[in-house]
Amino acid sequence: MITRIPITERVLDCFPSGRYAMVALLQLLDIVESDEVETAAVECRLEPCMKMNPAFIDAWAATPEKLLMLVMHELHHVLLGHTRLFPRMTPVDNLVFDAIINALLCRMFPEPEHTGFFTDFYDDTSFPECLLRPPAAWHPDEVVEVPPALSGKDKQPVAHLYQALYSSTGAGYHELYDVLRETLTDELAMGIVLVGDHDDTKDASLSGHLEDRSPLLFEIVRSIVERWPQPPDPIAGRSLADLLQEEQVVRSPVTSNRVILTRLLKRVGGVSTNGRTHRAVAQDAIAVSQPVPARDRRAVVLNAMDVPVLLYRGESSMKRVRPSGEQVHVYLDVSGSIGSLKGALYSAVEECRAFVHPAIHLFSTEVADITMNRLRRGECRTTGGTSITCVARHMRLNNVRRAVIITDGWVGKATGEDESTLRRARVGVALTPCTGQRSDLEHVTNYWAQLRDRS
Are 124 and 162 in contact (CB under 8 A)? Predict the structure, then answer.
């Protein structure tokens, strides 16, 4: 009698020993054999579980390498959180998203034993199914052959993007979607069996951000993915976290946030400590009108025209007391997890402009600088992901010594040179309402503030 190995053990065995923190994941994530799902799916509740269809596993992921690709595909979906980047997913969205994830995984694991999971399951003679797998006998360093299903002239634009997806050129979500929407309908996309769960009709308890619904699962999955082997030549566009997208933010002022953020900016900028404001006396030049002739260009012109001049423009100086200190560089988190809070954060920064450096640094996995006027207009550029690495790199390259980071705190821990950069600076962190957490930035932060979602 042959004893069938439980799927939990098979999943654990498919990962190289001691890597990816899988033991920690399996202690938290209950793996259940279930025919309720067609392939596999992760339910991200407070007690999360990964449901795996045993018939699908036996038929298409029987080897450790193929099972590894299936689990990695699911974890990538969980971490990227495509539902928070695209609130209402269509069948075409799902297919394009899977095409990009599959290409990313194939770049990570290019051996035929791994890529065979996709080449066996998907047919390269059928469109759009061929987009979900690499070409036959594919190698990342060789010329990408076009699948038979993309050989026609009408599919030429799709073929070019497919070649880019599996070559050093790279292709992103919007590039694929813009081309596919001309040739692909939702009805046609619905006929393709996708790996994982893409059902938008689930219970509302499963909606929302993973870090809210299951924060411990989010932390463990993130630590696993941080240890994933990276492609030898990482390419922009391989993941949705690499796509810098334009957004428009509608400002929504919260009066109390202006007070909270101003207090933090003053402390970081050296304007105040322990609630006491430091002030300095400065000589300011002011414009005055006087009867005494002075070097006034307007008066010279009027005299030349024989027009009598009664008053001349001049300057005088007077002492003024003003707060001392420096303007602070503000790094504003605009990642997908911030969601609808962006409007309140934009308003808070704009209302504190007297204490803020003229360039506002929007950050996700990249830093995009905008002016205060562009911030006031609601301009936003984001990749959807989040990383403290880009903030530390920007501070290092621009010699930033005083910074306030406005974020929900889910930015990853700074290590190595990034940690040193943040420690050398005076850093304040303003956490977003409700969802803010301190653990990622606690070791590099000098001052904290908690923003509110209402006055």
Answer: no
For residues 348 and 319, state if they share a domain.
no
343 within a domain of the structure (yes/no): yes
63 vs 236, more confident: 63
Question: pLDDT for 166-199, tens place per residue?
Answer: 886 666 666 777 788 777 888 888 888 888 766 5
In sequence order, the 6+-apart residues with CB closer than 8 A to the CB of 188 are 128
Measured in whole angstroms, the distance separating CA 130 from the mean position of its chain's CA atoms is 29
Locus of tokens 């202006």 = 258
- Count of domains observed in the chain: 3
Amino acid in position 198: H
Are residues 261 and 143 both part of a single domain? no
d(CA 196, CA 101): 12
Range of the domain at 295: 279-323
Residue 55 CA to residue 33 CA, distance in Å, equals: 9
The answer to whether residue 255 scores a pLDDT higher than 70 is: yes
The rounded distance, in Å, linking the Cα atoms of 366 and 400 is: 17
Q: Is 224 a residue whose pLDDT tops 90?
A: no
Q: Return the bridge partners of 356, or none.
A: 328
Rounded to two decimals, the pTM is 0.52
Q: Are residues 356 and 439 in the same domain?
A: yes
Sequence letter at residue 407: T
With respect to residue 112, please indicate whether it lies within any of the assigned structural domains.
Answer: yes
d(C-alpha 279, C-alpha 177), whole Å: 56
Region for 226 from its dihedrals, namely left if φ exceeds 0, alpha if ψ lies in -120 to 50, beta otherwise: alpha
pLDDT of residue 205: 37
- Backbone φ, ψ for residue 284 (5° rounding): -110, 135
Does 292 share its domain with 260? no
Secondary structure letter of residue 293 according to DSSP: -
Residues 292 and 340 in one domain: no
Which residue in this structure is represented by tokens 């400065």?
282
Residue of 6, 5, 42 lying closest to 25 (CA atoms): 42
Phi-psi domain of 28 (left: phi exceeds 0; alpha: psi -120 through 50; beta: other):
alpha
Tell me whether residue 455 is in a domain: no
